[in-house]
């Protein structure tokens, strides 16, 4: 440590000692017993991790592995077939028919369910609407209802031989003869409509949450500028909730691509595979009791192909999601 010289008021030179320097900081050592202090946190996390590995991670890895075998589910998989299962899946007309139906479910959910849910959410978000909490509850009830039960109940209600809906239509004179809602030509639109009704509540909740992010100051400013309701919706509400809307689109797409439980409960992918989706296609080859020998390897390959296609379609929405977030953050 060296001193410095300064000139005093009378022209004299004074020695000024420099300020003391702090010793270099030593790296902070981890206190002993950290693992012991957080032991209970790890204990509570362990069941979730075990269940995730057992029922999510392992089935995914096993599906990839078994897809390269001609395996019937009995004993170890030994008959290696390479990419033969994938080739058969990609050249199967029934697979692409099932994929088309799965994609139509998502298309209807995005083009019909999402806009309709947004309009209803705007209505239910109004403070002037009386009983809006009751309406929200009634619209959300189908979401928490078991989908298999919904499918069975609607199959009974739509039955042309004594079903409640057909009896109601005939008693009111709207139809002269029973309507076969689950025929080969009308089964798919019918199941899609029920799927929209079933998932409408969760999309409605998403939109309601998005509408809560719009500042009231913007609405007040739009009123001062003389904007009417449609103009406020177009120039204020929609631009603010657009980034969240992309996330809602992604969630709706993922949910609607797999309507297995509803289709299986109502039509079992019939009649004549009219309502067949990829999930029922995979189920048929893996668990159909009519098959003499289940084709688990082929079913795994179909699941892997469907998963990869869905992943690619989801990833293509990434740039749109990022662009909307950047636009909303400006």
Automatic annotation (TrEMBL):
InterPro entries: ABC_transporter_permease (IPR051393), MetI-like (IPR000515), MetI-like_sf (IPR035906)
Cited PROSITE patterns: ABC_TM1 (PS50928)
Primary location group: membrane
Pfam families in the record: BPD_transp_1
Transmembrane segments: 39-61, 103-125, 137-158, 187-211, 232-253, 296-321
Region (Disordered): 1-32
Stored CDD domains: TM_PBP2
Alphabetical keyword list: Cell membrane, Membrane, Transmembrane, Transmembrane helix, Transport
Highest taxon, organism lineage: Bacteria
Membrane topology: Multi-pass membrane protein
Pro residues compositional bias, start-end: 17-26
Residues of the ABC transmembrane type-1 domain: 99-317
Cellular location(s): Cell membrane
Assigned protein family: Belongs to the binding-protein-dependent transport system permease family.
Stated name of the protein: Sugar ABC transporter permease
Lineage summary: Bacteria, Bacillati, Actinomycetota, Actinomycetes, Micromonosporales
């Amino acid at each position: 440590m060296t001193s410095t010289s300064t000139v005093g008021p009378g022209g004299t030179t004074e020695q000024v000692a420099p300020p003391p320097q702090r010793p270099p900081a030593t790296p902070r050592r981890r206190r002993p017993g950290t693992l012991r202090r957080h032991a209970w946190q790890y204990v509570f996390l362990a069941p979730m991790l075990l269940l995730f590995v057992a029922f999510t991670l392992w089935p995914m890895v096993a599906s990839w592995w078994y897809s390269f075998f001609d395996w019937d589910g009995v004993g170890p998989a030994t008959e290696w077939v390479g990419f033969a299962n994938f080739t058969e899946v990609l050249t199967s007309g029934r697979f692409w028919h099932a994929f088309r139906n799965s994609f139509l479910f998502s298309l209807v959910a995005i083009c019909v369910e999402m806009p309709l849910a947004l309009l209803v959410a705007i209505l239910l978000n109004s403070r002037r609407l009386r009983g809006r909490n009751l309406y929200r509850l009634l619209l959300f009830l189908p979401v928490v209802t078991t989908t298999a039960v919904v499918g069975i109940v609607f199959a009974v209600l739509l039955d042309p031989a004594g079903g409640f809906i057909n009896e109601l239509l005939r008693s009111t004179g709207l139809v002269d003869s029973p309507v076969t809602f689950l025929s080969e030509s009308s089964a798919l639109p019918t199941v899609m409509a029920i799927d929209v009704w079933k998932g409408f509540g969760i999309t409605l909740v998403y939109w309601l949450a998005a509408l809560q992010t719009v500042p009231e100051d913007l609405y007040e400013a739009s009123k001062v500028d003389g904007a009417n309701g449609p103009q406020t919706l177009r120039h204020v509400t929609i631009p603010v909730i657009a980034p969240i809307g992309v996330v809602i689109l992604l969630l709706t797409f993922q949910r609607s691509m797999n309507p297995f439980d509803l289709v299986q409960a109502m039509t079992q992918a019939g009649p004549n595979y009219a309502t067949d989706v990829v999930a029922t296609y995979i189920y048929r080859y893996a668990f159909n009791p009519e098959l003499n020998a289940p084709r688990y390897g082929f079913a795994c390959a179909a699941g892997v192909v469907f998963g990869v296609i869905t992943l690619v379609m989801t990833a293509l929405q990434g740039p749109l999601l990022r662009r909307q977030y950047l636009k909303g953050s400006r």
